[in-house]
Amino acid sequence: MKKIFFLFFFGVHFYCFPALQAQNSDILKAQETVKNFFGSIAALDVEMMSGYVATDFLLLEDGEVMKLNDLVVEINKIKTYNVTRVNTINFLDAKQHDDVIWLAYDNTADLSMADQKMQLKWLESAVLIKERGQWKIELLHATSKH
Q1: Domain region containing 11
Q2: pLDDT tens digit string along 73-105?
Q3: Spatial CB neighbours of 94, under 8 Å, sequence gap ≥ 6
Q4: What tens digit of pLDDT does each residue of 102-139 get?
Q5: Closest to 130 (Cα-Cα) out of 102, 94, 99
């Protein structure tokens, strides 16, 4: 009986483990996409930022609905100020279903301009899809924690 149990457990583990590894790898890549997206915002690099979002990207923040072009306009306004931004992202949960991943995370932005410092915090969720083999942010929702 122990031998049958061992063979069953080993067989299930052997069969399922590669699928779990692939899923974990996809989730890690999706998380990296989110980190890189916010890194590009911190760098005020709208071209780089555009590479991390899906063609039908949608941002929901502070009761506003924005598309990529709206976000680009806002970032270009910030370029006139000498602002530095450092994001800290703490992932809380992740789920994958085929070529769709959703992530939940805390996002903290430490901002400084001249001698002023400010910290902003959000609870966010992102839905990512696979476009041409790359994970892209399709939907981003941010709720301020202030």
Answers
A1: 2-144
A2: 999 998 888 889 999 999 999 999 999 999 999
A3: 27, 30, 31, 101, 102, 103, 104
A4: 999 999 999 998 889 999 999 999 999 999 999 999 99
A5: 99
Pairing of strands 83-97, 64-66: unpaired
Name the token pair of 51.
């590479």
For residue 84, how many other CB atoms are within 10 A of its CB?
12
Cα separation values, 27 from 38, 56, 94, Å: 17, 21, 7
Domain total of the chain: 1
DSSP structural state of residue 44:
T
CATH number at residue 89: 3.10.450.50
Q: b/e string for 11-50 if b means 16 or more Cβ within 10 A?
A: eeeeeeeeeeeeeeebbeebbebbbebbbbbbebebeebb
